[in-house]
Amino acid sequence: MTPAASSIVEWDAIDTVLVDMDGTLLDLSFDTFFWREVVPQRYARLRGMTVPDAQAALMPRFEAKVGTLEWYCLDHWARDLDMDLKTLKREHSEHIRFLPGAQAFLSSVRARAKRLVVVTNAHRDTLAVKAERTGIDRLVDSVACSHDFAAPKETAAFWHALAAHEPFDARRTLLIEDSLAVLAAARAYGLGHTIAIRRPDSQLPPRAIAEFLSVDGVFELV
């Protein structure tokens, strides 16, 4: 933690805190594990393939959808892969966990009487599984999913739709997020405060981020 990390946020200048879920509050290691290991293993079993062959077949299909709503859409992949992905996620839900200090951070934001909203690209079925495991939906004022607006957070359309659904003063709103593309879209929309997460996956080292004010994790903001 840097000496000024705990005071990095200008709280007096902020009314609303928008916070990402996967990679900001919840450990992205679950999603990495699920899509790179669990799904290929089940896909291979169902089709009589080796796991390496399944991974080789699936990864380009996944990568082709990165940044689109379909990439985050459990319904899309369930149809595309002919698999019950919600059940598969629930079978492995013991791997879903908060990142260090996330619960304390949420408590501290609410103690400051700020409007606290999770904004996520996760599909509602994914949110349901993660909420069952963590109770994250009960620790905030509201949860907004990009699927509700038919646009991912990387697009201007999402931010316009969110503002209509969850009115906020963009100049007095903070977004905390691990995706640099999402942060760029939020900044372009006019959000006055942004913070990037350098270590969204606890199993990987922190990333170097130059474009945005950044911290290793929300624990530095408590």
Number of domains: 2
Described by its quaternary structure, the protein is single chain
**Rg (C-alpha, Å):** 18 Å
Query: Which fold does the CATH topology of the largest domain refer to?
Result: Rossmann fold
Structure, explained:
The chain has 222 residues and is an alpha/beta fold. It folds into 2 domains: 5-27 and 97-221, 3-Layer(aba) Sandwich (Rossmann fold); 30-94, no CATH class. Helices cover 41% and strands 12% of the residues. It has 9 helices and 6 strands. Strand 4 (173-177), helix 9 and strand 5 (193-197) form a beta-alpha-beta unit. The chain is globular, with a radius of gyration of 18 Å. It starts with 15 loop residues before the first strand and ends in a 7-residue tail after the last strand. The mean pLDDT is 95.
Question: How are the secondary structure elements laid out?
Answer:
Layout: E1 16-19, H1 29-47, H2 51-63, H3 69-72, H4 74-81, H5 85-91, H6 102-111, E2 115-120, H7 124-134, E3 142-145, H8 156-165, E4 173-177, H9 180-189, E5 193-197, E6 214-215
Parallel strand pairs: 1-2, 1-4, 2-3, 4-5, 5-6
Helix pairs in contact: 1-2
List keywords for this structure.
single chain, 222 residues, Rossmann fold
In short:
The protein is of the alpha/beta class. The chain is built from 9 helices and 6 strands, in the order E-H-H-H-H-H-H-E-H-E-H-E-H-E-E.
